[in-house]
Design goal:
CATH class of the largest domain: Alpha Beta
Structural class: alpha/beta
Shape: flat
Number of domains: 3
Bound molecules: phosphoribosyl ATP, zinc ion
CATH topology of the largest domain: D-Maltodextrin-Binding Protein, domain 2
Largest sheet: 6 strands, mixed
Number of helices: 8
Mean pLDDT: 93
Order of helices and strands: EHEEHEHEEEHEEHEEHEHEEHE
Distance between the termini: 34 Å
Helix content: 25-40%
CATH superfamily of the largest domain: Periplasmic binding protein-like II
Strand order of the largest sheet: 2-3-1-4-11-5
């Protein structure tokens, strides 16, 4: 390892690993990774990737042992390390949620007054119940929190949920979400002052944001009769139009994905044909 290289800690082997490595590669970082590797030096940038347990990332970044880390927002909320959050990365989506056994008579938060809640997130749990003025005990369990109610350990659980299938499998029902989470990029608080590392950091953030903003956009391509041009320009002002034989125009450009279905029907009315929508990999502006 080289001390002037920017160091980024990522989860070694877990739910965030595949998406994180995919995101880094989409951002143009070239590196080897296989399951037994502890760190990789990037071939094309002075960046080193360290593979660690996600629980260790807050301390590694806070202490400055590494400069950057990628982990779930849920861990930040729970541990509140002194680090700077730089970006939401738009994968690893889940919610921290309060759930009770299907047959439980409890139907609202206040119904849990005086009860015990099993969780790996005691701080988030206590903070949530305090907000509602409800007093609960928490019992901290690191794995398989879902089985605590059936063992008679707790009246409810607070755990991460994504599809909800684990809840269903354990005969639990969701009472209320507590907060939403996704993967985030964090930095050591003093990193901005490191003049040696700053240019690389800026370059990396530019690459990350160009990959993230591309996720919002789609490349669209279609043809319309040339008489539709004025109305189409009104609808989608930033598209490029090129004349085709047969009084038709070829129309191309980038649109916001959430606009697509709203304009789709109107484009049909304008005689649009050969409509293609493609993902955009990167946007550099
Ligand atoms: O070994 P290491 O300590 O690094 O990993 P870990 O076992 O502590 O974490 P891991 O890999 O399970 O999760 C890493 C991160 O992924 C979490 O901190 C979250 O930010 C994010 N994430 C996204 C999730 C989930 N979705 C998720 N569904 N983390 C955990 N779960 C678990 C949840 O705890 C429950 O057991 O999946 C189950 C529920 O899933 P569904 O789909 O059945 O609802
Ligand atoms: Zn962990």
């Amino acid at each position: 390892m080289n001390k002037n290289n920017l160091k980024l800690a990522v989860q070694k082997n877990g739910r965030l690993t595949e998406n994180t490595l995919g995101f880094l590669r989409a951002s143009g970082l070239e590196f080897e990774s296989y399951s037994r590797k502890l760190f990789s030096a990037c071939r094309n940038m002075p960046v080193e990737i360290l593979y660690v347990r996600d629980d260790d990332i807050p301390r590694l970044v806070e202490s400055g042992a590494v400069d950057l880390g990628i982990l779930g927002q849920n861990i930040l909320n729970e541990e509140r390390p002194k680090v700077k959050k730089l970006l939401n990365l738009r994968y690893g989506y889940c919610s921290l949620a309060l759930s009770v056994p299907k047959e439980s008579p409890i139907n609202d938060i206040s119904g849990l007054n005086g009860k015990t809640i099993a969780t790996s997130y005691p701080r988030s749990t206590q903070q949530f119940f305090q907000k509602y003025g409800v007093k609960v005990e928490t019992i901290t369990i690191k794995g398989s929190v879902e089985i605590a109610p059936s063992l008679g350990l707790a009246a409810a659980i607070v755990d991460l949920v994504s599809t909800g299938s684990t809840l269903a499998m354990n005969d639990l029902r969701l009472l209320t979400p507590i907060y939403r989470s996704e993967a985030v990029l964090i930095a050591n608080e003093k990193l901005g002052a490191d003049t040696e590392k700053n240019p690389v950091l800026r370059q990396l953030i530019t690459r990350f944001t160009s990959v993230l903003s591309a996720k919002n956009y789609k490349y669209i391509s279609l043809t319309v009769p040339d008489t539709s041009a004025p109305r189409l320009t009104k609808l989608l002002p930033n598209l490029v139009m090129t004349a085709l034989p047969g009084q038709r125009l070829s129309v191309n450009g980038v649109i916001k994905e959430d606009m697509f279905w709203t304009v789709f029907d109107r484009m049909k009315d304008l005689g649009a044909k050969n409509i293609y929508m493609l993902p955009v990999e990167k946007i550099i502006s």
